[in-house]
Design goal:
The protein is an alpha+beta fold and about 240 residues long. It is about 30% helix and about 30% strand. It has a single domain (about 5-240), classed as Ribosomal Protein S5, domain 2 (2-Layer Sandwich). The chain has helices spanning about 85-100, 105-110, 125-150, 180-185, 215-240; strands at about 15-20, 30-35, 40-45, 60-70, 115-120, 165-170, 175, 190-195, 200-210. The longest helix has 26 residues, at about 215-240. The relative contact order is 0.18.
């Protein structure tokens, strides 16, 4: 028996996804990404330098990310992390950075850094997955701008693939795709899947919050994630078009 979800969704149906590119005027790449009520503003900034530890790497570039919940993005005000980042924030930033770097030829990028800022305007579950999906769009816009400015070696696009992410969960032995906040609270299992447009897995984060899950359930969740992400990649392509 299916459990009724918010917005009348079926268990395998993701929330309505909307991607609005060039949302900000100043950044070389920016996008507002919406997974249902979750809204994340992603922007890309290019710096013509690399971190000190990367100096002398023969022109190799770097991609990094910063993530923040804005104070009014949650039901109770979230304090700004002015001096010290929480463990959760650091983990999400690293996840976004790893995911985006995995689809870029850093040597082709040249000796420069692209910083992806992901600011959560409204949090209703899946902020990290929305950040990855929107962060990729902002990144691609920034790289396209560099190519138009003849700043990329031989004008060869460093992007090797597209990347997006989706969350899943298990509640009462039923699998749900793209959890909102209330569903996430009740889930026995949380899973975040990061995947390329060609179907390759970049990261799978699975946690048994209340009870363990089976290999069969994991395989089913990965299949459902792959199906749902096809819709997300379609939205990314529509945003570029």
């Amino acid at each position: 028996m299916s459990i009724l979800r918010s917005q009348g969704r079926s268990p395998s149906q993701p929330r309505a996804i909307k991607i609005t590119p060039k949302y900000l005027k100043n950044p070389v790449g920016s996008v507002l990404v919406e997974y249902g009520e979750t809204k994340v503003l992603c922007s890309a900034t290019v710096e013509e330098t690399v971190p000190n530890w990367m100096r002398g790497t023969r022109g190799q570039g770097w991609i990094t990310a910063e993530y923040a919940l804005l104070p009014a993005s949650t039901l109770d005000r979230t304090k700004r992390e002015r001096q010290y980042l929480s463990g959760r924030t650091q983990e999400i930033q690293r996840l976004i950075g790893r995911s985006l770097r995995s689809v870029v030829d850093l040597k082709q990028l040249g000796e420069r850094t692209i910083i992806i800022d992901c600011d959560v305007l409204h949090a209703d579950g899946g902020t990290r997955t929305a950040s990855i999906t929107g962060g990729y769009v902002a990144l691609k816009l920034a790289i396209e701008a560099l190519i138009k400015q003849n700043k990329i070696r031989n004008n060869n696009n460093p992007l090797k693939d597209a990347v997006a992410a989706i969350s899943l969960g298990v509640f009462e032995d039923q699998i749900f795709v793209d959890l909102d906040y209330q569903e996430d609270l009740k889930a026995d299992v949380d899973l975040n899947v990061v995947m390329t447009a060609t179907g390759q897995l970049l990261e799978v984060q699975g946690t048994a919050e209340k009870r363990p899950f089976t290999r069969e359930q994991l395989n089913k969740m990965l299949d459902l994630a792959s199906d749902a992400l096809k819709e997300v990649f379609d939205e990314q392509n529509a945003a570029f078009a």
